[in-house]
Design brief:
Keywords: Membrane, Transmembrane, Transmembrane helix. The chain crosses the membrane at residues 6-24. The chain has helices at residues 2-33, 36-55, 66-74, 81-84. The chain has 87 residues and is mainly alpha-helical. The chain has two domains: 1-34; 36-84, no CATH class.
């Protein structure tokens, strides 16, 4: 009886270790995917501004698109000014 109980305890410990390993892997994957929403939103904003520029290229003013500007500037993936100064 003691041997069976020990074997069952070992099996339960192994199952718990495997379960915690897969939970850890899921947490790591979710950390990578947490900024996908921000990246997709930024891509949609840039696409919208690009299309609007194509429609009204002579009279296009970025100041008319305040919400889009705020999203661009508040994004984690915004390009620093030092990069744009080189062009």
């Amino acid at each position: 009886m003691q041997v069976i109980q020990t074997i069952l305890s070992v099996i339960a410990a192994i199952a718990a270790a495997v379960s915690s390993y897969f939970a850890y892997q899921a947490i790591i994957q979710n950390r990578r995917n947490v900024f996908l929403k921000d990246i997709n939103e930024l891509a949609l904003v840039v696409n919208k501004l690009y299309l609007q520029f194509g429609y009204e290229w002579e009279g296009f003013k970025i100041s008319n698109y305040q919400d889009e500007r705020l999203k661009l500037l508040s994004s984690k993936y915004f390009v620093p000014k030092s990069y744009t100064m080189n062009f």
